[in-house]
Amino acid sequence: MVFTVPLNAQVLCLGGECSNIPTEYQILGNFAGPALDRIYTDGFLRSMGENAVLQNLNSNQSGGQNVSSYRFGLGYTISRGQSKARDFYYENSELRNLPKQGVAASPSLSVTANLGEWFSSPYASRWNVTTHFFPYEFSEANIPFVKIRNTEVSGRIQNYGVLFRYFPESSGFSFGMGVFQTNQDLYLSSYDRRPTQFRIDGDKRRWIGINDLFYQSRITSLALDVKYNWTIGFLSLVPGVGFVYNQGFTALQVSRYALISTRANPDDFSSLPSVIGIRLATRYDHISSFGYGSFGLKFGQGSLSVTTEFMAGREMQSANLSVNYQF
Length: 327
Known about the structure:
single chain, elongated, mainly beta, Lipocalin, 10-stranded antiparallel barrel, 327 residues, 2 helices
């Protein structure tokens, strides 16, 4: 279920040309709908949020084998969704370069402990607890799959979680339950390389300016999963299924500040210098859930091992590669 907070839109026009924009003309309708309602639909924002959640789950690196003492892991996780934003209305402006597909990626550090190290009980030794974290600041250069032409990209990810895994005696199965916090901030900024056309009340105009987008997600998730471990020598195969319940929000703010041409001459920006500022914001409050399947491979020799795990939901996939040291 997705609850939509009403769109908040603000428009400011300064300069002599602003007198030629009819007050009864709903300028917001020319920008608010295309920029958010038609492009960044609830499906796209949900995809952005759920991709980040799946990537966070995969970063936990809990595996499917009982760790007898302690283990450290360092890995990298990527996630990509299939749900896309609709075609961009401003095809002739740099706004078309804003992202249309949910993507998430970051490194992570995990620590696993056997509860038998803390509690002197045979039952406690059947439990592992794994926690992971890695505050990560990124740019376009270190985000796979994100190539946005003529756009500056920056942001940060602060994901963490803790998962308890129970291993019934001599069954091969394990059962996990955990809590995860997914935090994402994404900043995009672009500028028009040349004036582009738009219309106000039927009159052709041109504008040139800068565009900014800020995306934020804060999602708390409860996760359950079942895995089965099958080991042959140094190779382990770990298929599984899981379920996640999410609660939180994704928010989006888009702004554009541009010089506008005169009504009489679309190429005239100087005789009546005028500027339009448009700021749009919306927020989607999520109470949602999804299921996923997983398949892991572990190659281990002594205290070192390399693992990879692939997770897939209905419209998203995630892959993790990690190196682990057990002691």
